[in-house]
Amino acid sequence: MITSKDNDKLTLVRKLGQKKHRRKMGMFVTEGEDLALAGLEAGHEPIGLLVHPDSEVPGEKCDPELLDGVATLASGTRVIGIWSDIWAEPQLLSADKCIFLDGVSDPGNVGTIIRTADALVGGYVVIGPGSADPFSAIAVRSSMGSVFTQPLVRAEITATPEPRIALALGGSEGPGPVSGPATLCLGSEREGLSEAVLKECGTTWTIPQRAGGAQSLNVAAAAAIACERISSPAGPAE
Q: Are residues 221 and 122 in the same domain?
């Protein structure tokens, strides 16, 4: 049982709370039994699993106060997993649908979009310039384990398959079904898609909104609507 705060694995967990160490070491952390089980069930081998003495998840027992001391959740945690990060190869992008994230800087939105893509589209989620780290604690938690099953790629917009579709205001059509490889491009809520990405898109989709309602949608909500439409052979219901 781990009883010292200076334990090597606890020290590693603290370091991996910072993006620079995650990027340099190629590792990330999960908190909670559900995420640990999601990783194991997806066939990934943890670098370490630190578990509450009463947890049924297999791993190295750790003093509960020490676990809570390195957790990012205010309520503490019963399991902390340390994993190698999981990136797909960019050359695979041309074979399937892609969701390209351009400057989506909120990690909660990034994690939710990864979960949505996993549920509705498959293919690849491309983490473009300026987007949040998908392996941060908030993004991983928001993905509900989909970081283990949804392929992620770091790439520029030019590496993604055509046709490329911008999801933005001012489009001439709403989202609809698309057969074969394609790229759906999503930007930040404040700035939208960058000019560099917009010029690579041949089509702009705009989600219709009711008159007098909110003027915009959260990017993760917009992604969910577009992902459902793009993957539905029947298109939107009449």
A: yes
